[in-house]
From TrEMBL:
PROSITE patterns: ZINC_FINGER_C2H2_1 (PS00028), ZINC_FINGER_C2H2_2 (PS50157). One of its GO terms (cellular component) is nucleus. Its main location: nucleus. GO terms for biological process: regulation of gene expression. It holds the Pfam family zf-C2H2. Residues 10-37, 35-63, 63-90, 91-116, 121-149 form the C2H2-type domain. It comes from the Eukaryota. This is C2H2-type domain-containing protein. It is found in: Nucleus. Keywords: DNA-binding, Metal-binding, Nucleus, Repeat, Zinc, Zinc-finger. The lineage of its organism: Eukaryota, Metazoa, Ecdysozoa, Arthropoda, Hexapoda. GO terms for molecular function: DNA binding; zinc ion binding. It comes from Pectinophora gossypiella (Cotton pink bollworm).
Amino acid sequence: MYIHTGIKAFSCEICSKEFVTLLEKKKHMRCHKNYKCSECPQIFKQWSKYQAHLKSDHESKEYICDICGRAFKQRTHIIRHIRIHDPSKVIQCPYENCSRFYSRNSNLKQHMLMKHEKITHDCSICNAKLSTKKKLQEHTVKMHKSEQKVRVPKTKLMGRKVRKDIGSLKLSTALQLSGLPATSEKNPVEETELVVVNVA
């Protein structure tokens, strides 16, 4: 009845957001819960992420490679894996004494950068070494979501007018959250300081 009138008769008791149907409200209420996995210690804020985790990490259904016997939890992963058994679709690492084969150029490149060229992306919080910037970002969000280190640079420009772009906003926000005083030409920041800012 309310769908055709547009009247939002159902409201969230927590955030007061309004909904036309009870079903919409029930779906919304999931965002106010944490979903703890019964199989492992992980906690999820979104129902969809929790469901995806259960399916990928704990679902007993496995896809077994007929050629080598390796097991996969997702169909897409075994499809990608099967390519390594087709000689026309694999690429061997060009470095001497390396017997690694890859079915994707991106994986080969990642392997060469990390294993042979020793290029890593280091976490500034726990010094973990990750192979790509994306993996570093994912690691930071997953492992250090409650804290973030913000580097306040040595500068004499803090008292001047600066562009209101993302960088200066981040610096301004970091200064406010850290409790450090905003400086001027008369009182510049003398050295770089490392500030831990809670992001929760």
